[in-house]
């Protein structure tokens, strides 16, 4: 059986050139970047060069990049670090109901420390309302954290508009760009954000490495203590090989990016049209025209998400849902609940398809055939 991987929003295969880059570094550059001898200086050179490449990819300065262990740590450091650094100015935070749990759980922890969090609702397409945001903004708001593109349904939020509203406000603006980086054109100056989170494994880089962009002169209370790495903002010996691999993945992602965006957008249309040609009833969760190019979330009336996932895996197609499937029970996707309500059938019958490296038109067509066959069987 030829297995098809359509779950790139969860994680992506590591590019062969990234593996090669990391292997060379691991073989030849084992020094500690903080050491002053030649071995340490060689490792430091790799870290510095990688940081410069990564910073350039988002229009940032090298000193504004903090290397982390991935998206979760980047989100945590941004939210907890800013909240603790600016709590003398207020205790109010604004976020949305459809953020990644790395954001939601970080906010939840701050509530226990006396902070107040406003969770903006979304409409049936997963978008927040600018009017709701204006009403939520207070003088004592110190942080706004709103994701660029959603990991489950792909909806893109009005980041630039929010940033404009915060131009004369004290609140710092953080966006989780983990799903958007590598495909969307992200320039921190144009976006107007103060902090931005990214993870390498979403762009065919290694797991366990990411970065947090922190605009110059933005205060940040560190969450880890030890050495003085990352300008005293994140202690710990740098993961040199993974940092080099990350930089290589960023370089590769920039090549033919427009073509990849077009290809993934076509894959989404092809999958939908192929299913509809087989008389499969479906609904798109979110919007096709205002979404991340590689994420497609579909609702199949009359099906059950757990049965769908198991059957598709048995047929060799790897997809996912926003649900955490446990033994005999399903915890509904908080994103779909926010969009459609707890009682909606969509929270129990929706599947996420996400495209990336090595996917082909033939794989998408084959996946449509498999999906149609399973849906027909389950709804018979």
Record keyword descriptors for this entry.
about 375 residues; Aspartate Aminotransferase, domain 1; 2 domains; 7-stranded mixed β-sheet; 14 strands; globular
Describe the protein's architecture and organization.
The protein has a 7-stranded mixed sheet with strand order 2-8-7-6-5-3-4, with helices on both faces. A 3-stranded antiparallel sheet has the order 9-10-14. α4 links the parallel β3 (92-96) and β4 (116-120). The chain starts with a strand and ends with a helix. The relative contact order is 0.16. It has 2 domains: 16-254, 3-Layer(aba) Sandwich (Aspartate Aminotransferase, domain 2), CATH 3.40.640; 256-379, Aspartate Aminotransferase, domain 1. With 380 residues, it is of the alpha/beta class. It is built from 13 helices and 14 strands. It is an enzyme of class 2 (transferase). This is cysteine desulfurase. Keywords: Iron, Iron-sulfur, Metal-binding, Pyridoxal phosphate, Transferase. Its cofactor is pyridoxal 5'-phosphate.
Mean pLDDT: 96
Shape: globular
CATH architecture of the largest domain: 3-Layer(aba) Sandwich
Distance between the termini: 26 Å
Query: Could you give the order of the helices and strands?
Result: EHHEHEHEHEHEHEEHHHEEHEEEHEH
Please report the number of helical segments.
13
The tally of domains stands at: 2
Which structural class best describes the helix and strand composition?
Answer: alpha/beta
**CATH homologous superfamily of the largest domain?**
Type I PLP-dependent aspartate aminotransferase-like (Major domain)
The CATH C-level name of the largest domain is Alpha Beta
CATH fold-level topology of the largest domain: Aspartate Aminotransferase, domain 2
């Amino acid at each position: 059986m030829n297995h098809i991987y359509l779950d790139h929003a969860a994680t992506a295969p590591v590019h062969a050139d990234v593996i090669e880059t990391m292997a060379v570094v691991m073989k030849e550059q084992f020094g500690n970047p903080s050491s002053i001898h030649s071995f340490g200086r060689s490792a430091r050179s790799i870290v510095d060069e990688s940081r410069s490449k990564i910073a350039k990819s988002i229009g940032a300065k090298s000193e504004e990049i903090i290397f982390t262990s991935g998206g979760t740590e980047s989100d945590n450091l941004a939210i907890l670090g800013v909240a603790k650094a600016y709590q003398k100015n207020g205790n109010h935070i604004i976020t949305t109901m459809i953020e990644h749990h790395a954001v939601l759980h970080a906010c939840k922890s701050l509530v226990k420390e006396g902070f107040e969090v406003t969770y903006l609702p979304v409409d049936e397409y997963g978008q927040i309302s600018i009017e709701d945001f204006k009403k939520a903004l207070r003088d004592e708001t110190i942080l706004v954290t709103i994701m660029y593109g959603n990991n489950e349904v792909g909806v893109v939020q009005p980041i630039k508009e929010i940033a404009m509203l915060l131009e004369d406000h004290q609140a710092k603006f953080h966006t989780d760009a983990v799903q958007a980086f590598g495909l969307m054109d992200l320039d921190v100056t144009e976006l107007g954000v103060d902090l931005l989170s990214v993870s390498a494994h979403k762009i065919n880089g290694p797991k366990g490495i990411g970065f947090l962009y922190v605009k110059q002169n933005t205060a940040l209370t560190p969450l880890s203590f030890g050495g003085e790495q990352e300008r005293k903002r994140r202690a710990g010996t740098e993961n040199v090989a993974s940092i080099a691999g990350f930089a290589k993945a960023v370089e590769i992602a920039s090549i033919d990016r427009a073509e990849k965006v077009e290809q993934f957008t076509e894959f989404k249309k092809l999958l939908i049209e192929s299913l509809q040609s087989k008389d499969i009833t479906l609904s798109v969760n979110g919007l096709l025209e205002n979404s991340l190019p590689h994420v497609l979330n579909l609702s199949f009336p009359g099906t059950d998400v757990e049965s769908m996932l198991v059957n598709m895996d048995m047929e060799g197609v790897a997809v996912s849902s926003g649900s955490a499937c446990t033994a005999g029970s399903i915890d509904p996707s908080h994103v779909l609940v926010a969009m459609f309500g707890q009682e909606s059938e969509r929270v129990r019958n929706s599947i996420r398809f996400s495209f990336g490296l090595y996917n082909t038109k033939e794989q998408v067509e084959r996946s449509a055939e498999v999906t149609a066959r399973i849906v027909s069987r389950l709804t018979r």
